[in-house]
Structure formats: C-alpha cells, structure tokens
Amino acid sequence: MARLAQYSHRLSVAPGKTFIQEGEAATDFYIVTAGHTKIFTLMPDGRRQITGFGQSGDFLGLASGATYAFSAEALGPLSLCRFSRTGLGLLRREFPELELRLMEEASRELVQAQRRMLLLGRKTARERLASFLLEQHHLSPTKEIVIHLPMSRTGIADYLGLTIETVSRTLNALQREMMITITQVTQITLLNLPALEHLARGG
Amino acid sequence: MARLAQYSHRLSVAPGKTFIQEGEAATDFYIVTAGHTKIFTLMPDGRRQITGFGQSGDFLGLASGATYAFSAEALGPLSLCRFSRTGLGLLRREFPELELRLMEEASRELVQAQRRMLLLGRKTARERLASFLLEQHHLSPTKEIVIHLPMSRTGIADYLGLTIETVSRTLNALQREMMITITQVTQITLLNLPALEHLARGG
DNA sequence: CGGCGCGTTGATGCAAGTCAAATTTAGTGG
DNA sequence: CCACTAAATTTGACTTGCATCAACGCGCCG
To answer: Is-above-0.70 flag for pTM?
Structure first.
C-alpha cells in the first residue's frame, strides 16, 4: 500500500458543492468514503436528469472520453479519495482485487441503468413513484417500512423524470389509496408492499 | 490462447432469435463477433424498452445478480462467442489486456446509459428523434449524411420511449421543416446537421 | 413579525398516447 | 411479372396524463 499514497489524496467536500463538472477534463477518479452524492446531467435550458446516487464505497468518474459526461454534487458532508487517472492504471496492476471490485461495481451500475431506462421510457408517474419508494425501501439496511427520503421533491422529480407537482400529487394519490402514509414531508410509511410492488412492475 | 477454447464456444444465432432471456440464470457471457443484437427489457403487459444495441466486438451478459436483467435478440444473422462465467474469471487472469478492454467497454456503456437516461427522462419527441438520427449518423463509419435505419418504426419507438405513431409523425414533421428527407422508409438524408444538433441538445 | 424557500393544491394547456382507417410496402404463389 | 394477401407505415380524429401557470399554506429564521 506504500505506493497508493502518491497517487491518491483524501478530501472533504462541503454539502451542496459540485465537485465534478460535466464537460471538464476527466483527469481524476474518485471513491466515496463517507456521505452521499448525486450524479446528474443538465441541458442548456436547465432541464436536469439525475442519473444516480453514489454512496460510501462507490466509484465515481468512470468516463470513456476525455471529459466527464456528468456532474456530481455532495448531498451532505462528503469524504472522497481522489486518484489521478494514470495512478489508477498503476494501482490496478498493483491490486488485482481492485480490478474485480471495479468490474462488479460497473456491472451493478449497468443493471441499474437498464432498470432506470425502463422506468424513464415506459413507466407512468404512479409506477415511477412506486418503484422509487421500493428502491428506497430496499436500500435501507433494516428494511423498515418507514422510509426516509434522502432528497427534496425537486430531487425526486429530477430522478424520476417528472415535475415536482406531479410527484406531490402522485404521492398524495397513493396515500388516498392507502398504499402509503406521508408521515412527514421526507418520511413515508409503506402500508401495502404487495400493491406497491404490483404497481411498480406495471401490472 | 490454448486454454481459451475450453471455456469458450463459437455459435451462430438465427435472425430474430432471443438468445438471452430476462430472468434466466446468468451462467454465460458473450462477445459479439459479427452482426447486431438488440438488448431490451419487458413489462408484464408488453411494454418494451430497448436499452441498447450490441455490435461486433461488444460484450454481453454483464449481470450483477444471479439472473439476466434483460433479453437479447439477434437483429440479423449473428455470430457469438460464449464463455462460461467461471471461464471468464480464469481468462481475465490469463489475459490482463482483456481486463482493460472490459473496463473500457463498461465505461463506454455507462456513459451512453447516462445520455439515454437524459433522453428518456427529459427530452421531447422531436429532441429524441434528432438525437437518434445523429447517433446513427455518428455510428456510420463513413459519416454519410444519408443514413440507413437498422430497425423498424416499432424498434425506434421502443428505443426512444415513444409510440410508432409519434415516431412517424415526428419524422414527417422534421421533413416538412427541411431538416431531413425520408428517401425510403429506412433511409433518411440529413439536410441540416446544425439544426438537428441544436434540437438534439435541447436549445 | 414578515419574507423566503419548499410543498401542496387548483385550473388550464398541450404533447404524446390511443383508436381507427387509409395507404404503402413486402411477401408469396400462380 | 403480376395478382393477391399480410404486414408495416402513415394519417386523421379524439383522449388523456402530465406539464405549466398560478395561488396558497406552512414552517423557519433573521
């Protein structure tokens, strides 16, 4: 591990700070060591699509071209480990098990990306919200039926390809239909998991 | 290369044949050696989302779980090289340069997946078609402005998250606006690349 | 207390979906 | 090569789900 230090650099990022900017030279590569990030792309007129979230242990900055194809922002206090792109190559030679982790991570992300393309391309607003709530549920380590939403309505909307109004209305509709209870703005109780699962898969 | 043969197996697939079925045990891994495939996911009621296409040289079957999360179908006569999942692990150890190719491929696909999430989540029908036409244009080795659509209207619709009627109408609208000419059903001439690029990026 | 950010709710508009019919294209056998 | 059929595409009329525009309510903090 002696050589690791000369290619890596630990750093902290303030909440809300964008530490990877779409279009900039993709010189570095990051590993999240603590906290959460959101990964998104923007259109010139401000339309935003959140393509994913990064948690502790996740890799960030896998770019195929010379520049980043996305931006990344700290959702809260964030700790990162930064590698230079060249350093990563050397590291990979040094630690074969890293290679495996990288592939696993890439596969996992690719599968998730496919799920999200189905959601964004073919699901209705109700189905998207149901899918989202269940995803949050599965992410929770305790599998509690009370889930905490880690983002605002704007975040949910940009993640699901909807508007904040539709998110709000749809959430309330699901509550009226007794599938969920909106305990607080960012806290929801899942009342009818089978119904939500049925809805999420779309039939 | 001696050991390669004992883990790999060349095979041909008939046009239209589905050779990877969503939900089945993800035991194998493929490399496309000739032809084209489409990769898609289905919903119980038949809604389909094409998540991508595989060409010669592409890897297929990167699954994170025990089962495939997608189906793959031969678009025409197709040649594949199949590896057992265990064989792949051994191969990776044997050929470090394969490792690199795998990572490059995964990165490229991840970047493309992000572009597609933006398209599916935030772009209008016109923007989607413009993006699609330019993608086909960039895929062509000769960069001809006459492009050949490698699929039917149904295929385009399932790729872009639209209906066949909207695809047809939008294509004709772009023709009326002098951005393209529909020479034949599957052959389109791009008349105004700057306008299409402007439209595709959304402003 | 008052302004401000965020969320909810309501009224209205419109892009894309649905349903259906017309038309073109492709395929098949005589 | 042509007639006939089946499939794909286009076109039209209509519907609808979500977006847009606009109030309104509610914490929260200076």
So the answer is: yes
